[in-house]
Design the sequence.
């Protein structure tokens, strides 16, 4: 049996699990616990498609290793008659297996399913209903581009193992003196003029950060407020800090532990554009989210 996976050009690609070198992957390990107890399931593993079709087209073929795939510990999920076990290994061509990656899968109905963070072997897993296609993305503070579409047919007891080649830019660890990444601008987060009241059209962007913090439980962030240079600098600093705190409060109200969110107001001291035009001043009035270490 063969199935097709269609990809958009973007953050990841599926790669054949059978390695060219003899390096062992988590699926090479002996099965442990209930990870090996499944009665004659349909097992699938990805294999790159041939010349036919687009460069983003892949085939899923029968495999004998998907059922037993696991990471640093035994698998916690088991395929059923109505749910497929998707087992991911996320790797970077230079760094190897990547830890701390959360994968989100969206069904056409809008329902989302999430893995936990990948472990030290790059492994994560999730159960999803059979008989539908899923848009696959990496959760991040920033981009939400669809990286692939993974079809899961309606066969019962499916175990599907996918190796994901991570192609997003990986920010190197920060220097010891600066334990945070550079900020990501939360575009579309706006406030009432001269106030810290968040406008409702800002909620979808803030909800993206809430989603990230909900499922990447190890993450901590800083919310930084910035203004243009119009008005008193001290008042601008107070306003920027109040706006950052408003964003933090919104996230707390959505269920995020406040101890995971720090706030700071920089006022007009860190412009990203000249303040000599309306466009430049608008760019400088911004909220940034920065992941802390």
Sequence:
């Amino acid at each position: 049996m063969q199935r097709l996976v269609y990809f958009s050009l973007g953050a990841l690609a599926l790669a054949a699990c059978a390695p060219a070198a003899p390096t062992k992957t988590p699926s090479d390990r002996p099965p442990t616990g209930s990870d090996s107890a499944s009665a004659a399931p349909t097992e699938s593993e990805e294999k790159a498609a041939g010349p036919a079709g687009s460069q983003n087209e892949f085939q899923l073929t029968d495999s004998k290793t998907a059922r037993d795939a696991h990471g640093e510990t035994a698998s916690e999920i088991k395929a059923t008659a109505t749910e497929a076990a998707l087992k991911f290994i996320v790797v970077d061509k230079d760094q190897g297996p990547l830890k701390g990656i959360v994968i989100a899968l969206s069904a056409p109905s809008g329902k989302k399913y999430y893995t936990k963070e990948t472990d030290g072997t790059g492994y994560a897993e999730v159960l999803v209903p059979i008989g539908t296609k899923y848009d696959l993305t990496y959760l991040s503070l920033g981009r939400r581009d669809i990286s692939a579409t993974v079809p899961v047919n309606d066969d019962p007891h499916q175990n599907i193992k996918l190796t994901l080649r991570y192609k997003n830019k990986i920010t190197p660890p920060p220097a010891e003196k600066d334990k945070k990444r550079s900020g990501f601008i939360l575009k579309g987060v706006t406030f009432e003029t001269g106030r810290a009241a968040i406008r409702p059209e800002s909620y979808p962007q803030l909800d993206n950060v809430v989603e990230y913090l909900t499922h990447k439980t190890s993450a901590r962030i800083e919310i930084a407020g910035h203004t243009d240079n119009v008005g008193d600098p001290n008042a601008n600093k107070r306003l920027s800090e109040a706006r950052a705190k408003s964003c933090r409060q919104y996230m707390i109200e959505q269920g995020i532990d406040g101890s995971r969110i720090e706030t700071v107001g920089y006022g007009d001291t860190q412009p990203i554009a000249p303040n000599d035009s309306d466009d430049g001043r608008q760019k400088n009035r911004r909220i940034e989210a920065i992941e802390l270490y």
